[in-house]
């Protein structure tokens, strides 16, 4: 579209060209155009969902493989599940450090956010990013920018449920 | 073994697709998505609806963050059964401490080892 504009404008004088350019810029900034961009169909919608399914599924499959390996070596199912989570968290932390996980997240979307590896990424990424602000108020404090809300809500809800359970003795 | 892996793949994929639909529809940020799924898993487990999924699909249900919420509630309720109020307060964290501690430890190591990189976007 831009090319066509240039071709059409090349026959007009330079003043006209700059006037039209200014006009186009003004239109771009109007709330109307914002509205158009907002309402225009998202062609990436289905693609996003597909990659979220594949990547999310693969991460869970890797977790299941780790669980099976632990169970085969005589670890209890519940313990194996905890080990698998820890290993996934550790792997994701290293992948974040190497910059692999952020690249994955760009096309996998929720597929990389929702598994426990996304929690790990949310802990490690800000820690790396804010290290330059110091070891305490940078690295250590920013580590919990996303993990903090997760833990606060998790602890509050789980304790609340357990206390309700105690009171009503379900 | 491979049947279990396939089940985990499918269930994990479905949960993540649900999350992606939520992102596409509402444009929630990562943190909000994590909290939403965590609380959803915890509330489902409060009515004992999430553990059956884990029993059926293994890692497919326990690896997503909703499984984290589920084990928080499981820990808290088990603590409440064993030790009363004290158990109810500490049980959730106790059950999920391995995951959180691993994230913190490896996060610290990686933050010390690696320099921040500019995001390609």
What does this structure look like?
The complex is a heterodimer of chains A (170) and B (121). With 170 residues, chain A is mainly α. Chain A contains ten helices and no strands. Chain A is elongated and about 80 Å long. The model of chain A has no long low-confidence stretch (mean pLDDT 83). Chain B has one domain.
Strand-residue proportion of chain B:
under 5%
User: Approximately how much beta-strand content do the residues of chain A carry?
Assistant: under 5%
Number of helices of chain A: 10
Task: Sketch the topology of chain B as an H/E string, one letter per element.
Answer: HHHHHH
Task: Tell me the quaternary state.
Answer: heterodimer
Q: How many structural domains can be distinguished in the coordinates of chain A?
A: 2
Low-confidence stretches of chain B: none
Chain pair forming the biggest interface: A-B, 77 and 82 residues
Structural class of chain A: mainly alpha
What share of the residues of chain B lie within helices?
Answer: over 70%
Rg calculated over all Cα atoms of chain B: 17 Å
Taking the sheet with the most strands of chain B, its summary is: none
Q: How do the helices and strands line up, and which of them pair or pack?
A:
The complex is a heterodimer of chains A (170) and B (121).
Chain A: H1 2-10, H2 14-29, H3 31-39, H4 45-72, H5 77-98, H6 100-108, H7 110-113, H8 116-129, H9 135-142, H10 144-168
Helix pairs in contact in A: 4-5, 5-8, 8-9, 8-10
Chain B: H1 2-26, H2 30-46, H3 50-57, H4 59-62, H5 65-83, H6 85-113
Task: Briefly characterize the structure.
The complex is a heterodimer of chains A (170) and B (121). Helices cover 85% and strands 0% of the residues of chain A. Chain A is an all-alpha fold.
Task: List its salient traits.
heterodimer, A: 170 residues, mainly alpha, 85% helix, elongated, B: 121 residues, globular
